[in-house]
Amino acid sequence: MKTKMHLAFDLSWTHLQGRWCQPGSWTGRTYPDLGIFREIAMIAERGCIDMMFFGDGTGVPSTWRGSPEEAVRWGIGWPRQDMSGYIATLAQDVKNVGFGITYSSTFMHPFYVSRLLNSLDHLSNGRIAFNVVASTRRADAANYGFDELMEHDLRYERMEEFIHVCKSLWASVAPDAFVWDRDTGIVIADPKKVQAINHVGQFFKVKGPLSCVPSPQGRPVLIQAGGSGRGIKASANFADHVFGSGKPIKQKVKHRQELDAELIAQGRDPSKVGILWDVIVVVGETEGEAKRRRELMLTAIPFEAAGAFISHAAGYDFSKLPARFTPKEINEQIAASNASPVGFVHQLGLKIGENTEMTREEFFEYGLRSATGYDHTFAGTAAQVADHFEEEFEATGSRGGFMIAHPQATPRELLNVVDFLVPELQRRGRFRKSYEGKTLMENLAG
User: What is the Cα–Cα distance from 376 to 159, expressed in whole angstroms?
Assistant: First the structure.
């Protein structure tokens, strides 16, 4: 029997970087219309999709040329709502799809986040995932009072303590503590089933307990996306599933191997931790149609908007690039500034060689492909995309699946995934035909 893969819709950028006005996108509706997300939820449920996933960012990009002007003009990286209220509403419209929400352990407090996620898990009957991130964007940091980015490894130390506190709080009230006895009026018969956590650490001091009724899952599914050595160590520390970036298959295999080794070192079973690989797909009835739609991605935003996007993501102002340079030289400057050392420039170095000299113009051609998602979009028929998925799934251990990310146009691309790709994967025995679990944790474990 073939191992089944999991599929999620990553909706983090559906309305950004020019996607909102591409052919196949909604007309007469604009973000953040709740109706848009309701329709996506219905599409996802019809296709037995595991989860609707919402990445997040809280700053207006301002790294490019030291100004937010181009990001504001072209809708780069913003606007973004806090999706917790949307999820609470959507959970009433669909009964099986899960919801992934993102908060930053670099900026947020674990008591607040653990309490919020507990409530969302109740409202969704156990269908919440928590994507915890270590923030690398300067515009986000400035909104939380930081003049500079926190040092790279320190961000992950804070993340691990953050999750330790959250897990302690979620476990601070026993699952069977509440009795709600109408005859006696007793709420909890054994007060010892409610315990303070008395946490005092490097970053947080939290007494506890969590002042909530334990939620259906006990805690949300935990997702983490670290790709650096320190990020992979954090994933192995606590993640149920890893969000893997869209990179060449050799790098995906390497990521899986490094994660497995770290999981074993930390006493965890690698077979229980899946990687959901970020992938952008354009599924067409013919290969020619799919590739034609893929080419439209390069028309979504102009040069200045692409510069704003990649500068924000890297935490480095690429408008100041010299006439000629190598990816290694630039990535060393990025890492020295405590921004992400495994972002766009690192991936570019893997693609063309980190010591390959290039011009500014060549760099920004790659930058446009990165900002629009063109560089890791696979376009083809349902059979071709299914072949691609199976190859990468098997090469990376057949554990996890794919985050179908940043559609070229919504809802068209998501409809094509559900109507063309999902049936093909089901025919091959690679994807479920119905939901088997009641909670997101149960569905992702299958």
Answer: 29
